[in-house]
Every structure is written in structure tokens, then in C-alpha cells.
Amino acid sequence: MWVWLLHRASGLVLAFYGVVHLFVISTAMYSGASFNDVMDFFHEPVLVALELVLIAAVLFHTANGGRILLMDMGLGIRGQKRVFWGLLSAGIVLLAFMTWGLWGEIF
User: Fold this and answer.
1) Do 24 and 38 contact (CB within 8 A), yes or no?
2) What's the pTM?
3) CA triplet 48, 51, 55: central angle to 5 degrees?
């Protein structure tokens, strides 16, 4: 049940981010602030932390979506927990690399 709930929550986070992303990009295009000024704002540590939360949501949603896709195709039904944890482990490794890369830009 928790994976089902987290999958829906991560989907909502991604949908919310899509709307915010479009708003920020359109504001940068049509306001007096330059696009570079807006992008500089996103290098603040708090916003980088939020970006890492977004990346974690994407990776979780992708890992669980991959598990669901495999199950729909009839693959890994008996070992769906192992498939999920394997995909999630790969996502955690990717998140670690992305965290290292993003925090390295700031500090």
C-alpha cells in the first residue's frame, strides 16, 4: 500500500512541478528580469535541496513505474519486490551522483 501511495504522491509532485516550471519560464520570458537572473536565483541552497527532492520523486516514480510496466507484461510478477528494490537501488545510486554534482556547483 505504501508504494502505491508514494507513487501517487510523486505523480502529484511531478504534476505540480510541471505547472511551476511553466510559470517560472514564462515569467522569465515576459518580465523585466533576465533569464540569467532567474536562473541565478535557483542556485540558492534551499532551492537546490528542493531540486534534489524533485529528482528523488522522479527516480522513485520511474522505478515503481518500471516495476508496474514489467508486471503488466507478465515479467517479474513473483519477484516484484526484488525488481522494485533493484530499480530503486539504481535510482538511489543515481540520486547520490546527482546530489554530489549539484552540491559541488554551489559550494
Assistant:
1) yes
2) 0.73
3) 140
